[in-house]
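Lecture 7 notes: from sequence to structure.

We start with a single chain of 510 residues. Read the sequence below before looking at the structure.
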Amino acid sequence: MTKITPEHLTRSAFVYVRQSTTDQVLNNHESRRRQYALADRARALGWGAVEVIDDDLGRSGSGIARPGIEKLLAAICEGRVGAVVSIEASRLARNGRDWHTLLEFCGLVDTLIIDEDGIYDSRHPNDRLLLGMKGTMSEMELSLFRQRSLEALKQKARRGELFLTVAVGFLKVRHDRIEKDPDRRVREAIGLVFTKFTELQTVRQVHLWMRQERVPLPAVGYGAEGRTVTWKLPVYNTLHHMLTNPIYAGAYAFGRTGSRITIESGRKRIVRGFRKDRSVWEVLILDHHDGYIAWAEFERNQRLISDNANGQSFMSRGAVRRGEALLAGLLRCGHCGRKLHVAYSGENGSSGRYHCRGGHLNHGGDPCISFGGMRIDRAVGAEVIERLQPLGVEAAISAVGHDKSRTRRSGARSILPFSKPAMKPPLRGVGTMPSIPTTASSRLNLSIDGMSVCLRCVPLKTNATHSQRVHSLRSQSWNGNVCSHSAPMSSGPGTARVRHPRSASGLSAR
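Now the structure, written as tokens:
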């Protein structure tokens, strides 16, 4: 007994064609040809009007919105469909909601369902039971496929061997290993990004500098020729991705992003790309490969980027803003804990005043505190300078050392060369005093046994022995022969002490 009646043949047969992914559409041509060939089968069964619905090519049947299936259901409800033809049940739907909705509508308007195995009438109990089992098996098959593939990916990722894509600046040398790009131009361009971030301290400033200087960066593209590298001016997201990707610090990371499922218009909607906190990453392997920066520098960059974000966190420091106030963005209200605002006044707008308006703006309450910024800026600035003064002395001594080679090449006379190439190395943890040129701007004094001596007035020869130099210095100090260039020496934080390996005298220079 045939299930196809003349009433079915008076209506159209709809052939539903679907492939789950774009990759299948591009590569699995035979599957698509088989589905399109179902139109010939519908004509062989007696239908003269055959329509093909292929709007869902590249769309999953797991429950997301599909315009093709919506069009098919609308045509069934209008009574225009005599039969739905598909290669198998899984092409029509892989979730219970879509599958049983289709069966219900087909049973109400007497529409047949045809696949490669047979012809089914959803109004008959046996056919409805068989179709229900096919839909359940199709849904379970999808779950098994997904579970197996995900577990295989995670297992390979735990070994640090999973590379779905490779970031620019690296190449996959084997199926489970990556190395730096051998192209020197690519390596130097990526290294420049991290160098400029260390210098400028913000992603935006690096972006503006590279756009202003017209410095292009490499970008990876995938096409018919495979993986290609093109050069173009960077955008902000490109630089932010480089600076926040742990692969450039020699680390392997997996599971840095996640997905969320929401319901919109009765359909499942998957939103991917949500960043996870580092503590919940699935895999993190340090020293996995050679990176462009060290892991410690990467962590410092992440803290700096986080602190530069305004409004992202209650306790974030925020980016540096315009204005003359020294402590803008660094002070918080002692009452509510909110960050203090700065208001400028005066003729040139250079006088700042710190105030808290958080409670007033958010809750309509009274302002918490308000005070002028001149005194606190001066006080904090003085403390900072006092703490940095020893570092400044060390930097000055180092700069003098760098001038040594220049002075010798120019033929200028050097005074007090405490070290010679042939001299024994200094004691551990003790540096040697470099030769100091006698320039008019030099204001270095030496203190020997508490006596202050001007370096520009000490008559020493460069070929004198160390004992002769020390004896001459002591003689001049003890004789009180101190010129107007000398100044009383102090042993405060601005004095750097250097001890020579052959002398027990403590020398301090400032």
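The two ends are 110 Å apart (CA to CA). Keep this in mind for problem set 3.
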